[in-house]
Amino acid sequence: MEKSKDIGVIVGRFQVHELHPGHLELINGVAANHKRVVVFLGVSAALVTKSNPLDFVTRKEMLLQAFPHITVLSIPDTPSDMDWSRELDKRIREACPMGSVMMYGSRDSFITYYHGSFATTELPAHQSTSGTEIRNGISQEVKASPDFRAGVIFAAYNQYPKVFPTVDVAIMKSDMVLLGRKPKADKFRFIGGFSDVTDNCYEEAAAREVEEETGLTVENIKYIGSAKIDDWRYRSEVDKIITLFFKADYKEGQAKANDDIVELKWFKAATLSEEQIVKEHYVLLKLFHQTQTGL
Questions:
Q1: DSSP per residue over 220-281, as a string?
Q2: Selection from 62, 50, 94, 102 nearest residue 75 by Cα
């Protein structure tokens, strides 16, 4: 490691529940060669994600517990590497107005994206388990402790309220529309479900849901409108569902109830009424009839 610089700077995420040997070796090595050590923790703009589950304060306290004499600061993620580099340089000099600086990172670290004014040193990779592997392992384990339960509650409350995007489809065949019925329901609903991260667009999600729940393929998928759905699962939650409603023409296939649909039935589109539809789809029925009448 560089011994001639006054300040050793480490930039990382440390998104783990406890520091692993690679972390300890890195910080101890930098501390042994510099008068002052500053760790900058990358802060994501998204809250509580799989890649960034821990907030800044939680990670700062973890580092200071093991290394009480280092300085731990934050550096927010930005869309531009140049802007991020300038901001990092600025924060380094705010914390350390005087002294020479050496920055440390591994091959897959911040160094590739850094375009600032300070020197960098690439450290050899450590054989410790990666943070991703550690988080994957933790996610499979449930602990019977108050701290574990408190952590789950903390994570749940420290997220932005979410809107879950879904798609629903009015499948048309001439003057008929195909609806489905779920288990324990006595009325029917438009075919649909949650959009998936593998979908490239909502039209693709609509076609996928139709195929999964009915076995049919559709064409001429056209957007009708969107609406908040009064789904019983989210009535007492802050998070809600907003669906994108489409109309599509039957192309081919034999209708067969699949997935979470137990019955399919063709209805006369012009006379489809609330008496035949589950209550949470009344708003979609209104949009459907507006489209049918051209209003």
A1: EEEEEEEEEE--GGGTTSS-EEEEEEEEEEEEE------TT--EEEEEEGGG--GGGB-GGG
A2: 94
229 with 235: CB under 8 angstroms?
no
CA nearest to 265, candidates 139, 180, 151: 180
Tokens of 45: 């703009």
Structure tokens at 126: 């450590």
Give the chain's domains with CATH numbers. 7-157 (3.40.50.620), 163-293 (3.90.79.10)
Q: How many CA atoms lie within 13 A of 119 on its CB side?
A: 13
Tell me how far the alpha carbon of residue 19 is from its chain's centroid.
25
Residue 124's pLDDT is 77
Q: What are 39-86's pLDDT values in tens digits?
A: 999 999 988 999 999 999 999 999 999 999 999 999 999 999 999 999
With 60 as the cut, is the pLDDT of residue 217 above it?
yes
Dump pLDDT digits (tens) for 157-198: 999 999 999 999 999 999 999 999 999 999 999 999 999 999
Other Cβ atoms closer than 10 A to 24 = 14
Q: Where are the alpha helices (DSSP H) in 110-145?
A: 131-139
